[in-house]
Amino acid sequence: MGEKDQLRPKVNVSSYIHFMLNFRNKFKEQQPNTYLGFKEFSRKCSEKWRSISKHEKAKYEALAELDKARYQQEMMNYIGKRRKRRKRDPKAPRKPPSSFLLFSRDHYAMLKQENPDWTVVQVAKAAGKMWSTTDEAEKKPYEQKAALMRAKYFEEQEAYRNQCQGRKGNFLESAKTSLKQ
Q: Where is it mainly found?
């Protein structure tokens, strides 16, 4: 595997992680000879997290915000390698939408028209509820269309892979012939 960059800033942690680290230290101080497995400790920690007041949680949220600001500042000054997203080949076929997405596309405009002040998230949640309450007979056309699109995608994907392998083969053959000359 690749080597880790030792100079890369340490990633910021959430308020819950700050709480968990603090809880762990207090637990070790109070019961130094007691060992809890990860599962049991996590369970106790999450129970405690749910039971603490909003005021106490605010302390940890403030710590998380400070940590986030620290991380962002350090990343601005960081010169080393940054993680790069793998670039998608624009010629590669796109994955087809699911039956639910096809349903959502058809009903989005109607939901937005009925509720113009809703956000995209609210419309998506409403579409999800509509989908879950829709009977199988109404879902069937969307599922059939999705299946057709999926089959077409697999065909295109296979053709694309063959084309890519052909390009690699042609490249190797042209390289060999140029070396012979």
A: nucleus
